[in-house]
Amino acid sequence: MTKPIWPGSGTTSGPRTNIGKNDWAAIYSATSYGERFREIADETVRIESRTNLLFSFEKMAVRDAVRSPRGARYFALGLYDFLYGTDGDRRSLESWCGVLAALPRKQTRVLTWPIATVFGFLARPERHIFLKPNVSRRAADLYGFSFEYQSRPAWPTYASLLKVANDVRTDWSPVISRAPRSKLKY
Fold it and tell me: Mean pLDDT, to the nearest integer, of 65-85?
């Protein structure tokens, strides 16, 4: 069974790679919230599992955290607010980090930079960036940027990385705009 690549687009040329805003809105109109929270949490974990962005222990921490109905509910609602909330980037990130910190955990903590940023990056890459601590610090250093890194996820670090990304995009946009475009459809 294939689902639209971009929900609502009507295309069914492959397995689902994203959960769109309309899918999330279905949570709020469903009569059985618990099943919808579970569905969103499971689908989100499945989408991420097809990437190599998180370490295996981080993937396991997320799966364990959303296994319970409470964990699935917190995760689904928190992620929706992070992706589509209207509170602004700072408040959205801080609220999302609060959700991750409150999720049930077995061994590994769920509140890490990779976990806090991977879902935003996968769902809305035009707005969010993925933060892998060592790689991000090294890249910023090699590029000559000051990256204000703190190990506990918080707005100042994320804002600093967004600024680095914006500066790199600005510096490279003339080169990218002249690059040949592929005619392949992704």
Answer: 91
Using only the alpha carbons of the chain, give its radius of gyration.
Answer: 17
**In the block, which residue shows the tokens 């990056």?**
121
Are 76 and 65 spatial neighbours (Cβ–Cβ below 8 Å)?
no
Q: Judge whether residue 23 has pLDDT over 50.
A: yes
Under 8 Å between Cβ of 115 and 62? yes
Whose tokens are 């499945």? That residue is 46
- Dist. CA 11–CA 143, nearest whole Å: 39
Q: For residue 33, what is the enclosing H or E element?
A: helix 33-49
User: Which tens digit of pLDDT belongs to each residue from 60-69?
Assistant: 999 999 999 9
How far is it, in rounded angstroms, from Cα 184 to Cα 186?
A: 6
User: Is residue 136 scored above 60 in pLDDT?
Assistant: yes
